[in-house]
Amino acid sequence: MDIYEEFNADFENILDKDFEDLLEKKGNIHLINEYKKFLNDKELFKDKQEGLYREIKWSAKRNPHLGTWCGYIHTTIDTSDIEDVVHGGFTAYNGFDCAHYDDFTPFDIHMIKFSKKNMVLLPKSKIYKDFRFVYNVIQNMINKLLDE
């Protein structure tokens, strides 16, 4: 079993009292809240979502390795003028991801818990981007695309 398979098999059980105490002692208590946002998001939304917004097809899917979302719009319209509303800029054709330096990835918690040093310091600014965030970015992309 590789490290990603371990994470996916045990993502619900990573947080325990000892680990939460360690994170708090090291000043990373905010990571617990971000991880709980991920667990709530995972419970509420399937790992793949798709639909139409203003007659433009869109999709979002959760990265199976990191637990983060990627969002896409499916159109032949030129999207070069909308990159300023795309989270982190385009990382794929008409798509973006939520695994940038300042994005919290659920896999971060797994790496901290199971690293040999047992503590990786992460910026306090890391925030988990849930499906609602991704869908909002997708709507902003389509709105800007169609309203220009």
Tell me what you see in this structure.
With 148 residues, this protein is α+β, with helices and mostly antiparallel strands. The chain has one domain (3-147). It has helices at residues 3-10, 17-25, 30-44, 106-114, 131-147; strands spanning 48-53, 56-62, 69-74, 95-97. A four-stranded antiparallel sheet has the order 1-2-3-4, covered by helices on one side. A hairpin with a 2-residue loop joins β1 and β2. It is elongated.
Measured on Cα atoms, how large is the radius of gyration?
Answer: 17 Å
Structural class: alpha+beta
What sequence of helices (H) and strands (E) makes up the elements? Answer: HHHEEEEHH
Low-confidence stretches: none
Largest sheet: 4 strands, antiparallel
- Approximately how much helix is present in the residues? 25-40%
Query: What's the end-to-end separation, in Å?
Result: 49 Å
Summed up, the domain count is 1
Residues in β-strands, percent: 5-15%
Shape designation: elongated
Provide the spatial order of strands within the biggest beta sheet. 1-2-3-4
Got a strand count? Answer: 4
- Could you report the average pLDDT, rounded to the nearest whole number? 87
Number of helices: 5
